[in-house]
Amino acid sequence: MSSTKLIKNSLKALLLFLSYSYCSLADSPKHIAITQFVEHVAADAVRQGLIEELAKRGYRQGENLMVNFENAQGNAATAGQIARKFSGLKPDVIVAITTPSAQTMVKTVGKESIPIVFSAVTDPIAAGLVSSLKDHKGKVTGIMDAPPIKEQFGFIKTLLPSAKTIGVLYNPGDSGSVSSLEVIRKEAKAQGFTLVESTSFKSSDIQSAVLQLVGKVDAIYVPLDNMIVSAMKTVASLSLRHNLPLFSADSGSVEAGALACVGYSYLQTGHKTGEIVVEILKGKDPSEIAIASPGKTDVFINQHTLEKLKIVLPDVIRTKAHYF
Amino acid sequence: MIRMTDLHVTFNRGTAMETKALRGVTLDIKKGDFVCVIGGNGAGKSTLLNALCGDVIPERGTISIDDRDVTALTSWQRAPFVARVFQDPMAGTCANLTIEENMALAMGRDEKRTLKSALNKEHREKFRSQLSRLKLGLENRLQDPIGMLSGGQRQAVSLIMAVLKPMKIIALDEHTAALDPKTAAFILELTREIVEETHLTALMVTHSMQQALELGNRTLMLHEGRVVFDVRDEARKGLTVADLLNLFHKASGLELDDDSMLLS
Amino acid sequence: MNLIQFMGALEIGLLYGLVGIGVLLSFRILDFPDLTVDGSFPLGAAVCAILIVEDVNPWIATFCAILAGMAAGLTTAWISVRWNILNLLASILTMTALYSINLRIMGRSNIALLGEETIFRPLESSSYSLLYTKPIAMFVVAGVVLVLIYRFLSSEKGLAMRATGANPRMAKAQGIAINRQILFGISLSNGLVALAGALFAQGEGFADVTLGSGTIIVGLAAVIVGEAFFNPKVIFTALIACVVGSIFYRLTVAMALNAGFLGTQSSDLNLVTAILVGIAMITPKLRAKILDFKAARNSA
Q1: Furthest-apart CA atoms within chain C: distance in Å
Q2: C42, closest residue in chain A (CA to CA)
């Protein structure tokens, strides 16, 4: 072989070798394991958003991404067994959707081994998953979907510009409600609202708690309160009967009859989760990833309640809202 | 020993199915009496026994045992001094428990139960010696579930269980009725022996007039919730079934038309 | 199945073995179908968790959980015995009330115990791997409970309880106050289940109001599968059988989680449970049929 040909062939070979290695490096399949606690539209939407985001960023199931998914079916013991399965599988990233799945995962896998990304968890610090939102140690991070109270009160102001007093309905025995009350008071004041609090200790008190607000407030706000939210149909119909706009912190309540809520869509939550997972897959240390909120908010409105209250939506809201 | 005063028992009071099972029964049973109670269906025999044992509470009248008023006591409160053998061999024992466990239950009848082990060597020795008198080989089968035994065998064990501990009264509720004639005879003979040995006051409900004359020292006949006649000791000796029928006729003015009582 | 899954199945299986023993006490021994356990399991978890979070010693917290469970069982039994309400219905009443009561006790729907002082803390700080120490700890707990319950059931009082369920009328004739037996027995049963709940919360790191759903099914599965395996004739074997049944159930779940090749997903787990328990129930009958067939063939 002549020297030029030799050099050409060697260069070709080198190029081939380099490109082959590069491809294998880029294509070495990544492995993620996803678990969710319940079979629920919301959790499914998070997972869907996650997979979509991963695909958008170049990680596609079946091509260069292996995905294990297990649903605990609402059973904590099963969630525990799933956690152990994932612990043994040693994937690159574990994604745990909703609090109980995340808790058992962190307990089983620990905070220092496989990166765990939680999603759709309302309060990760209370859940014991991380010690703080920004400077947390360990390999646990994720997306928290605590209600965007600032945006919620801003929205009330936009929709009801003449409103001055807002009533807050909650159960003092619900520690989640009590802790969010501080933020509620701050944000209401920031928007220039006067707050009237009405408490209900048991389900049988809910009706009278609502009636106490009638005539005193221009609108009612219900935080993420277990007891009130589970009686939402009653609260909503009672408020409507007295022509009181009812705002909630979760979209499920809007479906049950509340006028509106500003919240995060679960799909959006999934996308944001996907962003974090991609960062970790690309090599970032989870302890450097701050826990974030899903970012973009959506407006959820109950059509029927809107019509009954005869409220006119400003164009900018009307076109972008989600209707029940 | 047993004093019943003006006992009235009514079932399903106030409904369409109201039944007056006992309508004023007054009895005085002495210590050591072996009373046979006969009567047609619905005469009130089983109700009398149930009232004595506490399964049924009379709406009127009192019962006292050994000069103690027991009318308000529940059946389990009377169990320490009233032993009982049921008609249905299945009802008198726990099928799933072993022979020795059933007997251990009987051992606990008269005293407060503790957390001590229910079965020990002494208990088993006692059970074995008691069971061997039956000559049925049961003393070697202590750990068999009692459900494996035949009806007759279970009744035999029930009888032994009734007298494992000192009792005041033994109540036998047609306890041979569910057995075949040969086994029934065996159980009856065993009953006679046991009551003789222990000098217990016995109340035996039977459906057979013949049995009612052969066993014990006193025969009582109930009809429609009342005592129709009551013969004992000397007055009873030598009576035949025909004599009993006459007595019934004289006392109630009716003819007895219950064939099963006459023929058995 | 990997080793972690296997040891996990053992650990959780032993823990739910306590539930199995509780269900054996109510369902089999006292003949009292008791759904309270769906409420007393999370009750134990809730009481234990809220006390631990308030810095109460975890052993005391666990003990309080047992007492709470016993109170729940006592309520069910009292409703049934005193007011003559069907045992199953009485238990449903208590179970339903417990959902709200548990929420009230916790003050929220979920309490995290990650990082709190639990009775497993000594294990977590030891140099031995938790992979082995936790299952061994659960084995010890299950063993101690098993021996204590066995000693009780062999005692005069325990025999009286067994008679109460086997033949109440005969039991009364033997001087047993059957109402008191039922009150104590159902109370004891739910105390055990609450203990399991407290251990679960500390072991898995959280207490949640949803912890209880399906507890009765797991307990029954343990009892029935154990009976199919062991065909117990004495009480000791029956006790061991339900713990083994519980472990076997967890191993089956673990295998189902791995049987992706069969196309099963975790959403099929309920079906897997149903099939497993169904097979367990049919096995003794099949066994009897085969024996009959053999006997017939021999005599022919």
Answers
A1: 74
A2: A76
Per-residue pLDDT of C225-266, as tens digits, reads 999 888 888 889 999 999 999 999 999 888 888 876 555 566
Q: d(Cα C273, Cα C250) in Å, to the nearest integer?
A: 10
Give the separation between CA C263 and CA C254, rounded to whole angstroms: 15
CB A140 within 8 A of CB A286: yes
8 Å CB contact of A75 and C109: no
Domains of chain B: 31-59+71-81+167-264 (3.40.50.300), 95-165 (no CATH)
Give the integer Cα–Cα distance in Å for A251 and A264: 9
CA dihedral C275, C280, C284, C290 (to 10 degrees): 50
Predicted TM-score of the model (pTM): 0.85
Say whether residue C171 is in contact with chain B using an 8 A CB cutoff. yes
Q: Are B174 and B260 in contact (CB under 8 A)?
A: no
ipTM: 0.86
Q: Which residues of chain C have pLDDT under 70?
A: 260-267, 300
| Mutant choice from B53, B94, B99, B160 vs C, greatest count of C C-beta within 10 A | B94
**Residue C212 belongs to a domain with what CATH number?**
1.10.3470
Instruction: Specify the residue for token string 């067939």.
Output: C293
CATH classification of A149-263+298-323 is 3.40.50.720, yes or no?
Answer: no
Kindly determine whether residue B119 and residue C154, on different chains, have CB atoms separated by under 8 Å: yes
CATH label, A25-145+266-288, candidates 3.30.70.100, 3.20.20.80, 3.40.50.2300, 3.30.420.40: 3.40.50.2300
